[in-house]
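Hi U.,

Before I forget, here's the chain from the pilot set. I'm dumping it here mostly so it's searchable later in email.
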Amino acid sequence: MIRFILPLIAVVALGGCQESPDATPSTIGSEKWNLVWSDEFEGEGVPDSSKWTYAVGGHGWGNKEKQFYTAARPENANQQAGKLHVTARKESWEGMDYTSARIISRGLGDFKYGRFEIRAKVPAARGTWAAIWMMPSDWQFSDGGWPDIGEIDIMEHVGHDSGTVHASAHSRDYQWQKGTQKTGILKVPTATAEFHTYVLEWSEERLAAYVDDEMYFEYLNEGEGEGKWPYSKPFYLIMNVAVGGEWVNDHGIDDDAMPQAMEVDYVRVYQTTK
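Structure:
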């Protein structure tokens, strides 16, 4: 999410595959996935404060974004009818022209390895940038040092390219500035109209991303140290809808389409046991 523009590294298409929301993750070899953390968003009002907090501010986030991220404001993040709605709105707030929310599990859900399932429907409007991603738990945005510290993007979707989702891994050696980031791209024509399950499988040896049951991104640990693999430490989850940003600003923002929401049915985190 921090980086700006993704080159098209790998593009495949999803041909109408649907996964049941209640599907159980498969076993891998002798290992079995066990549910260790989840949110089904069955409450009302703002997200559960025992599981989520907020990244707050309107300084552009190093990326020329146009929104102010608010905290515990139901207009930007709320649960209703079993879904979380992360909503971007056209309204003036703290010197910015839009509001939205960036909810994070930091300190409440920090994970080293596992299978991460997020069932979501993304916004379609031009100018929106929806993301489900992860950053290191021991790092603050004010610390600098990105992308050396590592970033895992489970799903990104921009409104001007509706129906295309991206998964990426960023590090010192594999980053957008060099055009070397590890990236997968998948055509999901119904991404803005239907719920799909966005999945990351992360182990000591491998990062892999799926939509429903189709893998479209895989990066294997090359065993060459932190510069290529800064993914051997705890990370936390982030879900947000940005307005604008370097990736989307050239395409403009459709103010008439606001408000725009990413809807999330559930977040489930599994880890393995022998």
